[in-house]
Amino acid sequence: MTSMGKTRRMMSVGLIGAALALTLAAPARAGETPTAAAGWHLTPTGTDARFRGLAAVDRSTAWAAGSRGTVLRTTDGGRSWRNVSPAGAGDLEFRDVQAFDARRAVVLAIGEGEASRVLRTEDGGATWTESFRNTDPRAFYDCMTFFDRRHGLAMSDPVDGKYRILATRDGGRSWQVLPTAGMPDALPGEAGFAASGQCLVSAGPRDVWLATGGGATARVLHSADRGLTWTATTTPIPAGDPAKGVFGLAFRDRAHGIAVGGDYRKDQPSPQAGAVTDDGGRTWRTSATPPPAYRSGVAWLPHSKAAALAVGPTGTDLTTDGGRTWRTVDTGSYDTVDCTADGSCWASGEKGRIARLAGKG
After folding, report:
1. Which contiguous run of DSSP H or E holds residue 355?
2. What is the pLDDT confidence band of residue 359, given thresholds at 50, 70 and 90?
3. Going by C-beta distance under 8 Å and a sequence separation of 6 or more, which residues neighbour residue 6?
4. DSSP-derived 3-state class of residue 322
């Protein structure tokens, strides 16, 4: 094994150990771990906004986007956060953010009609430019993803019976609606969930997946040509209700993926809340031991072929076998999770909660 391979292996093992150590820490308060313990370490954000959008760049830099038009950025590993919210955005609900580095980021606001917008910054949030505003009252944008620094997509709930896909080729400076000829029909009542910024995800230069719920079955749609043509596959995650379906996806390559979801209502159980694929989403099978409750976000641990984290309002779960079995490792509330190539993982959620996964010491 090369020295780089050894380093990556150590990063993965360290993060798995930190996640497992969450179960051994005696929490100071419900859902929180002591400062000296390994696991999620809450960072001081100074706000009670709910952050469903999260983009981790590396172990030092991360962006979070949330309610009341709030955008935060850290460049010191979460020790401090700077409020870089766009001016006049207080009425917007940011649900997704894609960051390229400490200075360049794109945020998505959700909602009907003109409430759905895309804004971009190139100076660390000092100034923002609106690059897209939806003018179709039937459209409602949920999520976005980028293949690289130039090419990205955003998705809207069905319009005229088909999901609407928005594309950029210049890093989010301009957007165009793609033709729908290659998009299969949506099921009655089917839509995406703007819960974690993970209802539209990509892996590699061309592959992208779209998660659905609300219809008779929960589906995942896949495109291998950056959103021009799609195929739809049924998943075993329960649907049949507007509150049920697939809420989050994560692919570690173009073949291996994890889906999480369930029923987001607090008083409802969520059996079969996890599923896995090893053929790019052509087929899905239920996790043998799924997460025990609704989960909205999921991320593969860096440089691991088998370890991933799933998060939701009632806890964090860890898998070390590619999503087949899950173990709850924390009971804190998070909506989304993101990991970086240099070996860090971040999570964010309600009441201003943003945390880093860290080892002991």
Report:
1. strand 354-358
2. low
3. none
4. coil
Judging by beta carbons within 10 Å of its beta carbon (0-12, 13-18, 19+), is residue 87 exposed, middle or buried?
A: exposed
Residue labelled with tokens 């943003």:
354
- Interatomic CA distance for residues 9 and 205, integer angstroms: 25
Closest CA to 200 of 257, 246, 158, 154: 154
What whole-number distance in Å separates Cα of residue 34 and Cα of residue 111?
38
Asked if the model's pLDDT at residue 28 lies above 50, the reply is no
Helix (H) or strand (E) holding 33: none
Would you state the structure tokens that stand for residue 259, as one six-digit string?
Answer: 């889906």
- Burial code (b: 16+ CB inside 10 Å, e: under 16) for 208-238 equals bbbbbbbbebbbbbbbeebbeebebbbbbbb
Task: Tell me 301's DSSP state.
Answer: P
Q: How far apart are CA 300 and CA 233, in angstroms?
A: 22
Residue appearing with tokens 């020295």: 3
CA-nearest of 192, 262, 180, 241 to 220 is: 192
Residue 305 has pLDDT above 50, yes or no: yes
Residue 189 in tokens: 């009542």
**What is the token pair recorded at 121?**
């910054």
The DSSP letter of residue 32 is: B
pTM of structure? 0.92
DSSP states of 147-187 as a string? SSSS-EEEEEEEETTEEEEEEESSTTSS-EEPPSTBSPPPP
* 300 within 8 A of 307, measured Cβ to Cβ: yes
